[in-house]
Amino acid sequence: MSANDESRFSSDQPDELKNIIEAAIMVSEVPITVDRILGMFLDATKPERATVKELLLELEQDYAKRGFELRCIDKGYRLQTREEYSPWLARLSTGRQPRYSRAMLETLAIIAYRQPVTRGEIEEIRGVAVSTDIIRTLQEREWIRQLGVRDVPGKPALFGTTKNFLEYFSLEGLSQLPTLQDIRDMDTIAAELNMELPLEDNAVDRPDDKIDNEAKSAAEKNSQADMLENLPVTDDRQPVENASSNDENLVTTDDSSENEESPVKKINETDSNQKKSG
Predict the structure, then answer these.
(1) pLDDT(104) > 60
(2) What is the pLDDT of residues 175-201, one digit of tens each?
């Protein structure tokens, strides 16, 4: 549609408007928010926010029986292949499936459930030193970020998960993380998040070789179940943008975030409500 064509466009054309929204979702490199969708239109032709939300619901229904589904990821929307078709789609991939060490998965799980959390607190929960390489790898993959520092002597860095973490694991929010009652070991977490654990110790994200033998011995004695039981998790887990309000000693840099309800129905809404109540 050229500039002249756009001037003739009317927001009263729902089919055309839905096609534009669908095209925007397809080409966006990140989940696209309602605000970004509205920002595509001239003031004279800008649709109502409620109209955009209604059309997103229609698109969700349109894709209900397709190989793609419309998902809401932290208030942004994207089209993705359905998980049940992953066994076939995986055979198209020429790259090697990444593997993650248990140490990395434990660290990521603690940050996800306990955020905002310091490295020292992670080590206290795990009972073993946290590899610098693991923290760096998680940051490089943009699964975690520094939220700020704790306002205590030494001002240790506080870590939390990112929007990329939610996007990568197809989570609408932290409330969709498996509840601790459902978790028995790291393999359960890996299965919930569609991650593959290494069968050997030579995984890509090995703990730092500088960890001494005493720390390694302590790690072996510290069972995964005990570690998970030590996670001080509450039922009101929040996205990292809102987590800072729960910690009076947290000093952060605020990120802008769109404040709106998702127009797309949450996947497994019943299960999500059960998790919150549990």
Answers:
(1) yes
(2) 888 776 655 556 666 666 666 555 434
Give Cα separations from 266 to 170, 201, 220 (angstroms): 12, 38, 39
Q: For residues 88 and 108, what is the distance between their CA atoms, to the nearest angstrom?
A: 28
**Which residue is listed with tokens 């975690």?**
144
> For residue 255, is pLDDT > 70?
no
Strands 76-81 and 68-73: antiparallel
From residue 18, how far is each of 54, 148, 160, 203 by CA, in Å? 10, 40, 36, 45
Tell me if residue 154 falls in helix, strand or coil.
Answer: coil
DSSP of 47-59? PPHHHHHHHHHHH
Q: Which residue segment(s) compose the domain that 70 sits in?
A: 3-91
Indicate if 267 and 166 belong to the same structural domain.
Answer: yes
Domain boundary among 43, 66, 91: 91
In a domain, 52, yes or no: yes
Task: Specify if 201 maps to a domain.
Answer: yes
Residue-by-residue DSSP string for 162-200: -HHHHHHTT-SSGGGSPPGGG--SHHHHHHHTT----SS
171-206: buried (b, 16+ CB within 10 Å) or exposed (e) per residue? bbbbbbbebeeebeebeebbeebebebbeeeebebe
| Residue 167 covered by a domain | yes
pLDDT, residue 257, reads: 41
Same domain, 111 and 222: yes
Q: What is the CATH number of the domain that holds 48?
A: 1.10.10.10
Confidence of residue 134 (pLDDT cuts 50, 70, 90): very high
Averaged pLDDT, 22-37: 94
pTM of the complete model: 0.53
> Given a cut of 70, is residue 171 above it in pLDDT?
yes
Same domain, 240 and 118: yes
